[in-house]
Amino acid sequence: MKGYLVAIFLSSIFLYYVLYCILWGTNGNWFPTEETRSRNNVKNCFKKPAFSDLLRFPQVYPFLCKSDFVKVAATTGTNNFLLPYGIKTYEPHFTSALSKLQSCELFGEFDNRVPCKRCVVVGNGGVLKNKTLGAKIDSYDVVIRMNNGPVLGHEEEVGKKTTFRLFYPESVFSDPSHYDPNTTAVLIVFKPQDLRWLMEILIGRKINTEGFWKKPALKLIYKQSQIRILDPFIIREAAFQLLRFPRVFPKDQKPKHPTTGIIAITMAFHICSEVHLAGFKYNFYGPDSPLHYYGNATMSLMKKNAYHNLTAEQLFLDDIIKKKMVINLTQN
Question: Suppose 115 and one of 44, 128, 194, 324 were both cysteines; which one would form an S-S bond, judging by CB atoms 3.0 to 4.6 Å apart?
């Protein structure tokens, strides 16, 4: 009788696991690379995230790894898209850049001990002014920031902890005072020049500044071991799956791409079991209201931007907040 009960118990566990895989999509949607398979078991958490149904492949590994990025790209279809949504025709450029990086690891050994990660994505919005959310933001397992949103001098408002900082060459810190040894700096590749820039930075060659919308950083404050390259699949998913952008824009319209903030949220959906947001509320009706929690830029500057569809992004954010897929720390 005892053996019979044990058999039933073990069968129940197996059945639960199978159902879990079917419902949450772990059966084939997680594409870890060979060099990270044993070190980064991100989804070792039997808790279905509130936002998981938004994603076609809930468990795509977010960084490219030199050993098998071409194989992974073929699996996700990323090899069929040009930049910024794929690697098509630029495989040699990615190979060269990745060969200079020391790691594609997601979390360190200590962070891997926390399987169900609570994450906060910190935008750079002016809504963070005077909110004193610093201590709360620092309490999360993972803190994701973007571009050159500073923590130095703003610790009370936005905290000081940074797990990941997403950037592109025109938006990354070059002042060593902003260096954080505990930060992983994640390059978003929008154009071929971004890969060329990274190569020139890593090998110490003079930076060619042609092809950038503004002058890129001429040096990188982070060590090679801290740098990663975001899988273009994450950018594509943000554009087509979450924001529902058309695959082809009309000829009289400039193509729109997701902001770094929406890309950061998409990445968080792949590595976290719970996602909170801070600093993502835009005041479209106040052109003189602060654009960022730092500096003097106003919303009027953002409204001139033809590269992003801020209305679509705000509608998306309002929807996932309303449906409680995420929690907004700066709702009011």
Answer: 44
* Residues across the chain: 332
Half-sphere exposure of 255 (CA within 13 A, CB side): 10
Distance (Å, whole) CA 65 – CA 83:
17
- Half-sphere exposure (CA, 13 Å, Cβ side) for 150? 12
Fold of 31-328: sialyltransferase cstii, chain A (3.90.1480)
Report the alpha-carbon distance of residue 281 to residue 242 in Å, rounded. 18
- Please report which confidence band the pLDDT of residue 332 belongs to, taking 50, 70 and 90 as the band edges: low
Q: State the residue for tokens 């020049």.
A: 193
Torsion of CA 229, 247, 311, 258, to 10 degrees: 10
227-229/274-278 β-pairing: unpaired
In this structure, which amino acid lies at residue 313? E
pLDDT digits (tens, 9 = 90+) for 97-149: 999 999 999 987 656 667 789 999 999 999 999 899 999 999 999 999 999 99
What is the distance of C-alpha 226 from the center of its chain? 15
| Whole-angstrom distance, CA of residue 216 vs CA of residue 114 | 36
- Give the pLDDT of residue 93: 95
**Residue ranges per structural domain of the chain:** 1-30, 31-328
CA–CA dist 64, 285 (Å, integer)? 40
How far apart, in Å, are the Cα atoms of 165 and each of 12, 123, 186?
A: 42, 11, 6
DSSP-derived secondary structure letter, 144:
E
For 93-183, list the strands marked E by DSSP. 118-122, 142-146, 164-167
> Coil, strand or helix: which one is 131?
coil
User: What does the DSSP assignment read for 236-265?
Assistant: HIIIIIIS---SS--TTSPPP---HHHHHH
Side-chain-side CA neighbours of 99 within 13 Å: the count stands at 8
